[in-house]
Write a structure and sequence with these properties.
The protein is of the alpha/beta class. The chain has eight helices and five strands, in the order H-H-E-H-E-H-E-H-H-E-E-H-H. Helices cover 52% and strands 9% of the residues.
């Protein structure tokens, strides 16, 4: 059962199993118990935040597309199709987090993807279509000779429009799902898929180990805080006054 949905008694029982502490007896026990649970909840919430923020940096493929709504939908649909049918991992430039190193993040996405699918529509170079902040620079980088070998154009309605930098690169029409899955399966080799999966597994393991170490460190900090407050102020003290000063995030 998720910790947040437990009753307070169950929360206390679970927390003390992982973080054994000696709390004062009544009548002030309930205050120390509340303080202890607040600190433990900080540890749980902090860990949940870190899990939400964790992102892999290795993919079987990525999709480059314009910011036009139909292209974004087509890219997401293509990713879902391959992930559900082939069990491979994909991302797109719409997933790149904006910030100081946005272009670097987009470049890393391409560098660490086995194949780069480019959604070749007129929106890709249409000046009236709003661009991602890194769009122009990324289009330039895609023309690198060492990247061309893993680029595959995608044509939603057949090769009616091909950007100049994609000329002479064989592409895929994505109107027929079963045919696309078969062609992509042949384009991304099993060896490449295994390499990506191995890198993702190593990254997940490293992240899990780091979380485990941080959790143990925070548990020890809780034990130290409670012991220190009891020694300094005594058992009659209300430790909840310290909540704003003690933070494990």
């Amino acid at each position: 059962m998720e910790f947040h949905s437990m009753s307070e008694n169950d929360q206390f029982r679970t927390a003390t199993q992982e973080c054994p502490v000696e709390l004062p007896p009544p009548p002030n026990h309930h205050r120390w118990r509340s303080f202890f649970l607040t600190l433990y909840m900080q540890v749980i919430s902090s860990e949940e935040d870190e899990k939400r923020m964790f992102k892999h940096k290795d993919w079987d493929f990525c999709v480059i597309h314009s910011k036009h709504e139909t292209d974004q939908q087509a890219a997401k649909g293509f990713i879902r199709l391959l992930e559900t049918t082939l069990g491979i991992f994909g991302t797109c430039n719409g997933d790149v987090a904006l910030g100081e190193n946005t272009l670097q993040a987009a470049t890393t996405m391409i560098q660490r993807s086995s194949k780069v699918f480019v959604l070749a529509t007129r929106h890709l170079e249409n000046q009236s279509v709003p661009k991602y902040v890194f769009h122009s620079a990324l289009m330039q980088e895609l023309q690198r000779p060492n990247w061309r070998q893993k680029i595959i154009p995608l044509y939603p309605r057949g090769p009616k429009y091909t950007p100049l930098f994609l000329a002479n690169i064989e592409g895929l029409s994505i109107g027929n799902d079963s045919r696309v899955v078969e062609l992509v399966s042949g384009a991304i080799s099993l060896e490449e898929q295994m390499q990506v999966r191995a890198r993702r597994d190593r990254a997940s393991l490293t992240f899990s180990n780091r979380l485990r170490e941080l959790r143990q460190q925070r548990i020890q900090e809780i034990q130290g805080v409670i012991l220190g407050l009891r020694r300094e102020y005594g058992d009659d003290y209300n430790p909840n006054e310290q909540v704003t000063e003690v933070n494990f995030l």
